[in-house]
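Lay summary. Proteins are chains of building blocks that fold into shapes, and those shapes determine what they do. In this project we predict the shape from the chain. Here is one chain we studied, written as its sequence of building blocks.
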Amino acid sequence: MSEPASISRSIAERYATAIFDIAQENKNLDGLEASLNDLAAALGESADLRDLISSPLISRADQGAAIVALADKMALAPVMQQSLALMAQKRRLFVLPQLIDALRALLAEERGEVTADVISAKALTEAQSKKLAKTLTSQVGKTVTINATVDESLIGGLVVKVGSKMIDTSIRAKLNSLQNTMKEVG
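And here is the predicted shape, written in a compact code that computers can read:
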């Protein structure tokens, strides 16, 4: 991992822990989650917002005023509004995408959920997704949410990542293993 990415993640995790703890004390985790969803959607849709949080050319005062006005207009949870204002004041808004990810992870952990990243050669059907989630739930002991992506270079099979564990049953991996074995023999 690159050093700037590691620093950004570290900053985001500290803010996320503080925001999560405050929301939990105020019994407003649902409001926090709704705010996160709204904020993530706004970041995904607005290039201007992405520029606002990452541009060093925008002054602290302008950045702060814009993010406070946006948070108020979006009716974000109070803890989120105050945190965004503080982050703007400290020039830390650039970690907002990592903050959203960290807060979502904390919320999922609180609910006893875990996300499985599943890469398949073809898109999974709803039935396949449900069956895989059920199987993974029984293995992991927590409710599993599937985050599915498609990579046709796998040829067939799946690559499943849950936390630090990875299971690769793809044909590409099996062919690579066979190729390595053939190199050792020959």
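What the prediction tells us: The domain at 3-109 is CATH 1.10.520.20 (Peroxidase; domain 1).
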